[in-house]
Amino acid sequence: MNEKVPLLKLENISKDFFGNKVLNDINLTIEQGEIIGLVGENGAGKSTMMNIIFGSNIIKDTGGYGGKIYLNGSEINFNSSFDALDAGIGMVHQEFSLIPGFTAYENIVFNREDTKYNFMVDIFGDRLSTLNRSKMKKRAEKAIKTLEVNVDINMLVNEMPVGHKQFTEIAREIDRKNTKILVLDEPTAVLTESEADILLKTIKKLSKKGISIIFISHRLKEILDISDKIVVLRDGELIKEVSPSDTSIHEISEWMVGRSLEKKEKKSIEERKFENIIFKTKKLWVDMPGETVRDVSLEIYEGEIFGIGGLAGQGKLGIANGIMGLYPAGGYVEFRGQELHLNDALTPLKKGLAFVSEDRRGVGLLLDEPIDLNIGFTAMNIQEKFIKKLFGGLLKWRDDESLQNIANEYINSLEIKCTSEKQKAKELSGGNQQKVCLAKSFALKPDLLFVSEPTRGIDVGAKQLVLDTLKKYNKEYGTTIIIASSELEELRSICDRISIVNEGKIAGILSPKDPIASFGELMVGNVSTDSKKVSNV
Length: 537
Ligand SMILES: Nc1ncnc2c1ncn2[C@@H]1O[C@H](COP(=O)(O)OP(=O)(O)OP(=O)(O)O)[C@@H](O)[C@H]1O
Known about the structure:
alpha/beta; binds adenosine-5'-triphosphate; ATP hydrolysis activity; six-stranded mixed sheet; globular
């Protein structure tokens, strides 16, 4: 009998990192054109499994893996990702692998550039061939067009907003002619809902063309909407394979965490009164690629949790980036009654402001350093915390014990999955790296904390934990918190007031109890409605 051979088959796959077992006896098959939705808590082993399929160096450099992988029935054993690409397996990693100083189109066709004939090639060989840029641009444009997004292919990658970087990465994979399997590791984490919708449609189209997709996401609704088969990993074990029509978000969440989850009643937010203005902006503008901040005037009360929402590119992320000196900014900003000088990244930190950026890997972590140093680093440098001094400060050295203590405090409270506080940041899973970034800002004990997209890349179970930790900080230390988020429900669950930014201006400020429709109206710039300004809840 002629048994049908699956496109890809994983047989008894296991992996440990220096004795720490992270994958155990995984068996999985993937058919041509099938979309597999891969889910699991932060640190469950999803990226590791994908790195094995993609032949990533990190697997080989850490002792390889156990078990066998078959592609079209033949065993494969990739020596590098180039072998995987040659075999038709592409991957878009959580962290971008684009070349920052190159344009989008150069990145999309990188290593597969078109060249022009010139006579020197006949004499000296291919090394003297010249690039056929117009052909390269046409190819890049075609790939971007497939995605139906508006990305400027001539823009340098380091000047792009994160969402556009993500589309550039995917366009690069689409441009490859031989792709059979595409692994997408949390591709929608950096996208807005509407951008994510576009991507999901593209994924469906690719699968119809016969390309198989392995799609990792913490947004379980997406997983249910798009997958042909949902695969749940927990603590390195494959614990469930299920069809989306036979399950629900709640059930998947329970398989992920391994226990039954109570359906939480929505708690109504207690109304709080605030007296003093701690922070003000007048006519703030910020020049950040992809983010329009034109004219933002705000007054923030000491001790409140203030939300900033709005559609992508309207300015919600640009505000904190400008104030914290990461992008050119102008206008007037005041903190505790004193003008705060803009275009300087050090002064805000010294004055008691802190920022957890949406681009956490870009500006957040010292990847080769251990967790404890990452958590304490900024506080050490800016506030001389975790430092021992002798002779009136003439002799200074690192206080390793207090660093360890603070790190362990956050490892426990934020449930950071790691082997110890000495594990290097680069060895943590994406979601756990993000928790380290939050801990780093908490260690500063700031008076005013800006947080952008606090739960991006965080699994369903840990989302609430992160929001609760923010609330706890606000309550215990009186920290004023300004949260920018594309998830309106997240803002409505913890903020005292929520502003909506539209076209670089504050369209209105609402109470979290206001109806969703009022937020929606402000998001599309309809300011003439009843959107009352909540000056103090
Ligand atoms: N290079 C490495 N060295 C040591 N341990 C590692 C390394 N890479 C990953 N790990 C460990 O393997 C485990 C699984 O990590 P992995 O990145 O596969 O998780 P994940 O399911 O993708 O999580 P997330 O949702 O947070 O991205 C984690 O405990 C992580 O610390």
